[in-house]
Amino acid sequence: MYKITFFAIMCLFVNTLFAQPKTEAVKTVPAVPVKIVPIVSTKELKKQLERNFKRKKYKAVLPIADTLLKRNKKDENVFWKKLGSEIYLKMDKQAIADLKKWYKNKDTAASVIALIPYQFDFAAKKRSGDIYVKSAMAWAPKNGIPYILYGAEFADAKKMDEAVKYAKKGYELLNEKYRKGFTSTYAGVLHMADKKEDAYKLLEDEMAAGNTTDDNAITYFSFYSTDERYQDGINKATEFIQKEPLSIFYIRRSLLYAKMGNSEKACEDAVTLRDKFEQYDYWLKRFDCAQVMAPVKPDAQRTYIYEVIFQDKLYDFRVTNPKVDMDNGISFKYKMTGEVGINGVVNISKEAIDTAHVQMNRFSNGNKDLTEETSVWISNAVFNELKTNGESYIHASVFSAQVFEVVTEDDPFYAVQVDDQTKYIKCLHIVSKSGDDSQELWINDDPKNPIILKMKLDFSIELKQIL
Fold it and tell me: Model-level pTM?
């Protein structure tokens, strides 16, 4: 704008100058101030785009995205931020129009449009994706992907006649390449529509022909699990292993063994997955296999060695041969090493182990009988609240009581040394909701022995070793 204004002023000045008689002096005119509108840099605009999108300020995203796309119409990240904002704002018609412009190939555009309800999880939000799928079918009527996805949507809604109708049409429209990628989807619809024999046969034939994708194997063996045909599924997995020993077949077989309650066989497959397929300890931990899990059962006669850091002092806190009975109470011997050098016995009463929300984390020499507090273990009440509600009130620090909430972990296992080997304990990680006084606890995820593994309070303590 300022360039146009400046140009107009210059033209006016030149015209005025040349319109004057040569003999007359030109009068000096005060300059008109021109307002300069600063141009925001692309880098700054991209920061604003990301910040607003992260904060879910989708209306603010749109004009920023439009400005950036004028500067670089091929910026894919900006386009998808704009598209995502339109979808979250339910500007569905505009989103569809933008996708049609972005993807020049009609089949590609239709496929992407049809996938939007799945990418943005419309089902969880109870939001219909019909406008996207129907637009995709109209845009590229010979593309089978929108039809098969529409069929899957009807299957989720338990409208099985429509589900089979659209899924079948879509599957038949697909070429060989794409058909392989959507076999599991079509088979899933057939199985849900109670056409189970067709579903099993379709996937079995595909895998026998070499189409052993993870999706096909997962869907195929999930049928056996859903139908509670565990042994039949195990037998089929064994057949496939004998022909082609792929990790996916061992995984599916181990899961069926676990469903049957045959942990020994599940762990055998887990060992194979670790040793031959570099799956590490993942499946061994998942199946709670003795090969990798620490012995923290209530009847285990062990010594738990914790490392404590308190007021810059480092020492061990040892719990020896605890008697754990979550119905009647807990008793354990303790000892602190180094300069602290205290020891004794702690007895936690039935009432305390059942209902207490207060932790006794300060020790003095001698024995302790706890009737309103727990120590080293949490109570039944706290454990049940954490498992049921995802949070619980705990007074763990002497300075403040807090509401703690469970943190979801990708790998919810605590590593500890047992007889010089690394073992694992499945744990609950909980964090105080107050940002002013951050506190954290890690607890054995076992209602029969909810021993505390680690705490970060005004001091820190963590289980390092079990002897």
Answer: 0.78
